[in-house]
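User: Quick sanity check before I run a bigger batch. Here is a single chain. Can you write out its predicted 3D structure?
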Amino acid sequence: SSGINAEYGERLTIGHDGSGVSSGWYLDCVEVEVAGTTFIFPCEKWLSKHEEDGEIERDLYPVEDSTKYLVKVPYQIELTTSDLSSAGTDADVYVQLYGSEGKGEIVNLDNKSDNFERGQTDTFKLECRDVGEVHKLRVGHNGKGTQSGWHLEKIVLYRATQKLNPHNARWDKSSVKKYYFTCNRWLARSEDDGEIVRELIATDENGEPINTAEMITYTVSVHTSDVAGAGTDCNIFATLYGESGDSGERSLRKSDNINKFERDQVDVFNLTAVDLGTLSKVKIRHDDRGSIAAWHCSHIEVAVEGRATRVFPCQRWLATDEDDGQISRELAVLPEGMTIADAEEANLHLAKQRTVYHVTVYTGDLFGAGTDADVFLQMFGATEDSGAIQLKSCKSNSINKFERDAKDLFYVECIDVGNIDYLKVWTDGSGVGSDWFLERISVDMPSLGVKRTFPCEDWFGKGESDGTLEKTLYP
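Assistant: Done. Predicted structure follows.
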């Protein structure tokens, strides 16, 4: 038997008594209709003594706007590792889908067996955001482990056209669409072009592309400013955004210069991705590591053969001890005909497209609730997202962030994503005390005069709750 207790529509508690041979239950969500209005309480967890954290009771919080609740559908994905010497990997592998209805979340693939061995096909059942007709897939790994290099032969994706329980799905071939992705390349620092991320175009079983998308090589020129202390030893990462999606975050590793990102220097990189169409912005960040971390970026230029070179001004520090303390920037493209020499006009143009979000993070008042791990945030609006933002420079606690019962304030500057529909929050699981209990996050949007709260009330950590390091939060 199960029971529900609702408190004035602000919280819903649901559970069962655990009796019966098959008492375990995977709950997607609860819908409550009041006076013609439907409220959705997402769960997406097991209520089972033998799954995840073993809990059989959950507190659920309503989605503020039920039309914004992400519809998730089952997928099955098969990855075949090539039958070549040293083709297998020990690294953590992830995928991300893109389709006619937008992009899905980054999904880490792990079914607790010995995955991605030479000549082996690994199958995973997923439940992800419905991206519609799939047109590309990004696959990569984190480069960690003694044998991280990986030679991927192909991927086959099955997308269900009807709702199924992802943990007990019976795939009816008549209600499943198949997509094929051919790779036949290394994802390895020491092989091929040294990249550990690949974008693959969706095809039918005969190898014909699902749509007209093509692979494009983008030439990315990064200009470090000519100011004192401008150079950095950090690792730099970039994401390109266009009318047809984004490139995903890429590490800028291979430059013609031995020492990259030095004062008054230009470093050139090649980035291969499915054609993004007209470019709109670039997100640039560094990892704040190395003996000299602070970096002053002048601007970035992105060129594609046969197209006009686009310019993305920055002219700011990415440093925890300079400017506003941010180590990531979103750079809007200059209108055609405007150059970096038009600095004053360019800055006025960019200022109109940026906004500052006040993000307050509330850590719970439980034993061991605080964390030493790095925490990241991504904000999703109706048509834009902020990209990954590391919550690094805290305005309220400069030394110890994310401590038990703490309230940490961050100023996040990025291109305006509009009204925020949902947040993704995650940690990197690093540090001795990496587990974290997040109570809630509030986001103040001064440009809209709106403040939204995103409840969590859950643990992040491999040894807690459902064992995940990532959560999706709804207002």
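Confidence is low (pLDDT under 50) at residues 164-169.

User: Great, the batch can go ahead then.
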